[in-house]
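The freezer alarm interrupted the setup, so I double-checked each line after restarting. Inputs confirmed:
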Amino acid sequence: MKRRKKSSRRTTVTIRHVAEQSGVSLMTVSRVLNESPNVAEATRVRVQKVIAQLGFVPHRAARSLRARRSWWIALLFQGAARELRGDPSYVVELQAGVIERCVENGYHAAVERLDASTPIAATQLRELVQQLAPDGVVLAPPLSSSEELLALLRALHVPFARVAPRSTDGDEPVVFIDDRAASRQMTEHLLSLGHRRIGFVQGPMQRSYSVRRMAGYRAALRAWKVREEPALIVPGDFTFEGGRMAAAQLLGGGMPPPTAIFASNDESAAGCLADAHQRGLRVPRDLSIAGFDDTYVATMLYPPLTTMSQSIREMGRMATDQVLQLIKGTTPSQAIRIEHRLVERQSTAAPAVAAVAAQEKSAQQVP
Amino acid sequence: MKRRKKSSRRTTVTIRHVAEQSGVSLMTVSRVLNESPNVAEATRVRVQKVIAQLGFVPHRAARSLRARRSWWIALLFQGAARELRGDPSYVVELQAGVIERCVENGYHAAVERLDASTPIAATQLRELVQQLAPDGVVLAPPLSSSEELLALLRALHVPFARVAPRSTDGDEPVVFIDDRAASRQMTEHLLSLGHRRIGFVQGPMQRSYSVRRMAGYRAALRAWKVREEPALIVPGDFTFEGGRMAAAQLLGGGMPPPTAIFASNDESAAGCLADAHQRGLRVPRDLSIAGFDDTYVATMLYPPLTTMSQSIREMGRMATDQVLQLIKGTTPSQAIRIEHRLVERQSTAAPAVAAVAAQEKSAQQVP
DNA sequence: CGCGCTGTAGATAGCGCTAACATCCAGAGG
DNA sequence: CCTCTGGATGTTAGCGCTATCTACAGCGCG
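Predicted 3D structure, all chains:
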């Protein structure tokens, strides 16, 4: 009774085996695989049963070659392969969102790194596109702002979506958060706690969202009619060390110290916190510190950091959805704003009376 | 004078164009691409010049289909796509190492997630292997210890290397660090500073390296003839919260507190640090804290964490090298140990006299 | 001078799939 | 009874490469 034939020198089951087993042509099996409409329901069911039974999985390379689709989405990050700067949780989260959506839609995500600052970036991208022939591309910041790369992708007719670019202009879909509003909200949070001298640690000003975050800080001050003090705005570079130096400048600079510091990202906030600890300041009693991003570290600091949460993973998901829509030919909404959320932990509180007093005292000393 | 022909409706340059331009057959071009030995030097140079000039890049899908090689290395992490636990810097670092070596060797890395705890894991892996047909696989822990998956890969004849598995047995290459020796070294570091009551925060004991790290701690105590005190060994789970609870047990448990805590990983160490801060202890004056892994967070804590550095990236590189050797047919060394390195930062110091005295006093009170 | 050998190159035949066209057949409409 | 239509299937060709076989020139050797 047992079936023989079953060649099976290797474990490879091809479409031909399915066709033979279910008594239809290769083409019909292919149609079932591709959810083509013109297949009789009975046939579809029968073929699918055989597919499941044989554990058949179509060979991607063969499909790609013929169908001129690869079922790959390339996720591009900035950075030479050996360098790799930046926040790992950002990378992992964005990646997770993209992978999740890819898998759900039968795609795979190819994570690649590209250094937009080198002249060969365009060549690398071209080679990548030609080799892999991805059906779409998701550009992580700051690649998402590289006009050169965008132009190249357009020229190659590769659909793409951008995550948090400098500008949301252009026809291609964009996923972003409202950095300005979020930053304003955080600043207003500190203001509403009673803080009036709020230090601000900038990000690198080439990054457009650094600029927007600072704009939000200023807008909040204006709205609350608090005079902006230039000395309270200090440069930073999104690194721990930068944050530490910024805090040193704010807290040890001979001026009346701020009662709160708002750092443009969590890593700089961690630096501020370290400096505060070193000076023997109690956070939040003597000094409030707030961050931005709600990354992995925010919960591991002492005290846990009040920060602005943006769902990076959601951005990954959305960007992928956009690309998939472009591939399908439907027009996605051009710009999607992802919600942000203020996460209040223990690094912020109302300024202590003592601190206010001390500040006022030193303010008297200085003039 | 200008050349015509040049069809070029699309930007796709095929091997045929190169062949025509350089006046050889397709096959010769292919041989040049594949670094086949039997090509005359002059021909090779000529063809390569044309390749560069046309910007030709071979189409991966087509190559794969015919050559039965995919030039993909799959890097598999534990975790359902939507869940994603664990330390992002581990993921990013391992990935960086793998990608780096892949790119250097003309391969691409496909990062995938697989949940070994579900019954469908094997099916998922099989589908992945059939679809993608990776030439090799790198298994990150704890997948690297899943006998089921290993057996499947063996059955499918897919070369693989394992990172930090439970056991280094088996024919396949393995990359690991000597957790026991590293842990012993860290413990001896604390002993040599003068600590005698050293708390130990365990990792999850299903993870074999948790077991080895504890063994190292014990070995150090034995070597220094310090009596092991069971109450100083507390459970943990590699999380921040677990570390915090462990520290609470060690520091607030009514027994003479340890002068140092060695946590099995940085994240638990961060938890211990938070608890210490909360109790108003000064680290390292009142309490030394050491971690393990030297992840991203270690430098962002206050004080910066003394920890055991293992180059995850190097493990990624090595594992990839091993797989590439298997693919080439050469036999790699079966087990590669990656160096570890004690990184002394500011969270450890000699126990303060006051602390020792306090400890002795409370020791007198207790009996 | 024929023989085999080696190094170089071309010709041929697909890899496993699917686009595009061809075919078939039932049922509607004349 | 013959078209015509359109859904369900089959047939053919070939995507861009490379494994494999074949061709042939040049050379040494007995």
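Quick read of the result. Residues 24-28, 31, 37-40, 43, 62, 64-68 of chain A lie near DNA strand D (CB under 10 Å from a C1').
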